[in-house]
Give the backbone structure.
Amino acid sequence: MTTLMTRRTLLASGVATLAAPSILRAQEGDIAIGSLTPNTGGGGPFGPNITASHKRVADAVNAAGGILGRQIRLYQENSETNPETAVRAADKLINVNQVLAIIGTWSSSVTLGIMPKCQSAGVIQMCTSSSSDIPVADEKGLVFNFQPLSPIWGRAIADLVLSRSIESYALMALNNDFTRSMMDGFIEKVGEDALVQKPFYYNAGQSSYRSEVTQLIEKAPEAVFIPSYVTDFTAVYKELYRQGYAGVVITTSLSTGDQFKEAVGAAGDGIIHGFPVPALNSPAYKQYLDEAGLEDTGSVQHPFGTAGRDQMSALLLAIEKAGTADRAAVARAVWDVTTGEGKTAVYNVADGLAALRAGEEINYSGASGSLEFDEEGMVLGRDFQLSEIRDGKDVVLQRLEY
Amino acid sequence: MSVYLVSMGTYVGFFMILALALNLQWGITGMVNFGIAGFYALGAYTSGLLTVRLGVPVGLAIPAACLAGLGLGAAVALLSVRLREDFLAIVTLGVGEMIRLIVLNEDQITEGPRGLRIEARPFGTMIAPEHYPLFYLGLVAACVLLAYAVCEAIRRAPMGRTLRAIREDDVVAAVLGKNVLLHRVRIFAVGGFFMGLAGALYAHYVQNISPEVFMPVVAMFIWMSVIVGGAGNNRGILLGAGAVMVFLEGTRFVGDFTDALDAEKMSALRIIGIGLLLIVTLRLRPRGLLPERKFNASSKLSA
């Protein structure tokens, strides 16, 4: 008797498993969109915000009746900030879920890693990556980058610190594409002559950065610039502190988030850091804070979550504008709804849809920036901000549009 | 869906070749290799760089990658002449990391962290793009068969018995007049050959490789395949590689069923789930899904 029951249960669960894929598949007529975000690994502090933004925008549009009379079906995958895993996740999104676009990739190696697959399937990509290789590798005009390329970061940070009359710099960067090209941009602005020695790279994940730091401050530069990520910068900074460096430490704001401030405490005071920030005074940013349930503190929150909102909004508006879910047409329409003058300015997807349906031309301005794209799909015109850590808090020194 | 299955089949193929090679080295001969990712990277970058930098045809670049793996395998085995098993583990782990760091830092040759784009594909111009994935699956399957045939031939040959003797106790094997070092070097080289092959096939398949792909975690997936499949049994290895890929990728589909958890929690749970599946498998089948058949003296005698 017991065996019989077990068999029945088995049979039932088998049938259930077979029937299940119909639930999983997008309903006929749904528009499938893939979200591939770094929920764990190096991008772990940022991925969840991006994912949540994608879902909020999609849910809001679905609740209001969808796009072109169709619902949005969002498939969310974790890239683990690892190109090896991300390629397989992208494979699933493209071939099983048949997505129109894969949005939210963060690390350049992931964006570039999945690009051959996306290009051959004609899938649109929207990312916040900064490798200068991205526009080069995008042969079909399907990639939109919501973050300035990293040489621009370096130039902007250099412009911001130039006014501080620092005469000599020493530079070292984490050895990855993002931080290396940032260093190149920085050198371009401050000039080779201001460097006390040849800049060099260090590898991530070392147990000690003692020899690197010793080399960095050997010639007693007035300031050091260290493009990095938070995990390695924390270790590097502790070593700088231990060796008693008294000059100015400059880095990116990605390295000096709450995780860093908790780790170093009061020793972190005086660090100067910069990065592209959301347009803090834009209505879109205020709306974003509302949607995400955050208080307006005046300081930068969710630098990548805001970009996530803009990715999904721009994509959905482009679908409405194109009037079809054809990938190439939607890709072209992304420029139509985000870029160009003399159009109705909109700050969220609901207003945008209403204006499009009223037959107006729109220009979506996002929470992450005014969101104008050049012909290669790279974002133009982001605000950069330079801050200093004082008493464990960021104090804004300067802001600049770039 | 079918395109997806073809593509996953191709990935399983890479895993199978690597796992067969590891089984030869560890499962049969008892030599620990934690540097699989390094051999994989060596194969991928050798073949990729030869085609990108020197314009060597893919048909020559892939064999060259195999030979590079062979050479490295032999060299590592020779280096470790006087090392016990656990020390060999450390040496291989070091070699694997060294290769990754060389690739990362010698960026004038390898493009370093920017990653290397590879246009060349085997028969890329002759086969229509829509048939290409299926063709590549066939190519990888043929390589898996080749690796399987070679590994199985070694296992069944008298040499296989010697290797197992070395695994169980190398001193005994040496006393019986077997040249332990020669066997070890040979087997490590053959294993390296196939790891190089897997790397080259991977590189021309994904067409974009960067040092981040070859983190030590890749080695762990292959170890999982061998342990889950059944160390020492080549057929078990094929099954194990398939099972690990089902664990890794199958868990992705859970998220599509339910909205109960947000994507962030789902992705963390997925990784925990993979670990749990492994533990359960090993609890139920401690010697793997298809354990190695042990020679049993009493059954032979009674027969």
